[in-house]
Amino acid sequence: MAPDRFTHHVSVDTTPESAWRVLQQPETWGTIAGVERVYDARHSPDGVLRAYRFTVRAAGKAYEGTATTHDVDAPTLMAVTIDTSEVIGSITVELAPSNPGGIDMTASLKMQAKGILSVLIFPLIAAAVGSGFPGQIEEIAARMEAAHQAPA
To answer: How far is CA 91 from CA 5, 120, 148, in A?
Structure first.
């Protein structure tokens, strides 16, 4: 079964550096694709989020999963690999400066059924994830703007 892909683009009133700091917070990633809980986050010595565990709910059932950062180019690119018993994929966030003084953020999610049972319910999972993805990315953008406007 071919993977499903979802992409959303948004302009954000923040700097790449401020947005980057928000991407290093595990709870930021917990807003994407039905994640209910993020825990056991690990950061590298330079502060980059390297891995976390999560619980996601799909088709009424909770699944445990892991996320591992596989591509980093601070402060413009961060990509994580996601892995559960039923679904694998990746989430990529790209940040680019834009005028006047904000950034353009493009977030992409690729997911694919992994297990035999997931092949049967994957169309339902993908439809639910796809319909919520734009709003979830808009929520991350709002978090970035709020963090940028907060006093240091």
So the answer is: 10, 23, 23
Q: How many CB atoms lie within 10 A of CB 129?
A: 21
Please give the Cα distance from 115 to 61 (Å, whole number).
15
In angstroms, the CA 152 to CA 79 distance is 27
Beta bridge partners of 37: 55
- Token pair belonging to 27: 């709870």
- Give me the count of residues in the chain: 152
- DSSP, collapsed to helix, strand or coil, labels residue 118 as helix
> What are the φ/ψ torsions at residue 6 (nearest 5 degrees)?
-135, 140
- Could you check whether the bond before residue 75 is cis, i.e. omega within 30 degrees of 0? yes
How far apart are alpha carbons 77 and 3 in whole angstroms?
22
- Summarize pLDDT for 34-66 with one digit per residue, the tens: 788 999 999 999 999 999 999 987 667 788 999
